[in-house]
Design goal:
alpha+beta, three-stranded antiparallel sheet, about 45% helix, about 20% strand, elongated
C-alpha cells in the first residue's frame, strides 16, 4: 500500500453501516428502594391498615437510654394485626434532650432510665458543688475559737462594766 491510498481510506472512514460493531448500551442499575416500598405498601394493604391523622411526633425508647424521634410522621395502623407503620424522617436523640415534652409518654422501663439519668445528673452536680465548695474553703480561714464562748465572755464583760 502506498501513502496516497492510505490517506484516501482515512478520509473515507464510515461510522455505522455494514460491518461496523454495535455500540454497547450501558444499563443503569435498577433502584431497589422503590421495589421495597412497593412490596411494603402491598403488605400493608393486605393487613388493611388505616391512616391515623393528627400525630405530631412519635418516640421509640431504646434500652440504652436513647430515643428514636419522628417529627410529624405519617402513621398507619392495623388494630386486628397489632401493627403500626410509621413513615418519616427519624433522628436518634438522648433522653435528656426530650425530657420536658415526653414525661407523660414514659413507661416503667423508661422511668428506670430516667431515674438513672437523674442520679448521674445529681452526681455530676454534686461533684461540681463539692469542687466549688473546696475552692471556697481555700479563701475562708478556719475557725479558731467557739463563737458561743466568745459571746458569753462579751456578756460577762458588759455585766461587769455595768
Amino acid at each position: 500500500m502506498n501513502a496516497e491510498k492510505l490517506a484516501k481510506l482515512q478520509n473515507q472512514v464510515r461510522i455505522g453501516g455494514k460491518g461496523t460493531p454495535r455500540r454497547k448500551v450501558k444499563k443503569a442499575p435498577a433502584k431497589t428502594g422503590s421495589g421495597d416500598d412497593r412490596k411494603l405498601s402491598a403488605a400493608l394493604q393486605k393487613l388493611n391498615v388505616q391512616p391515623i391523622p393528627g400525630v405530631d411526633q412519635v418516640n421509640m425508647f431504646k434500652d440504652d437510654g436513647k430515643v428514636i424521634h419522628f417529627a410529624n410522621p405519617r402513621v398507619q395502623a392495623a388494630a386486628n394485626a397489632n401493627t403500626f407503620a410509621i413513615h418519616g424522617r427519624s433522628t436518634e436523640k438522648e433522653l435528656a434532650e426530650l425530657i420536658p415534652g415526653i414525661l407523660n409518654q414514659l413507661g416503667p422501663e423508661s422511668m428506670a432510665a430516667l431515674k438513672q439519668l437523674a442520679e448521674s445528673f445529681q452526681q455530676a452536680q454534686g461533684g461540681a458543688d463539692a469542687a466549688a465548695a473546696n475552692d471556697d474553703d481555700d479563701e475562708i480561714p478556719d475557725l479558731v475559737e467557739n463563737f458561743d464562748k466568745a459571746e458569753i465572755k462579751e456578756e460577762e464583760k458588759k455585766e461587769e462594766s455595768a
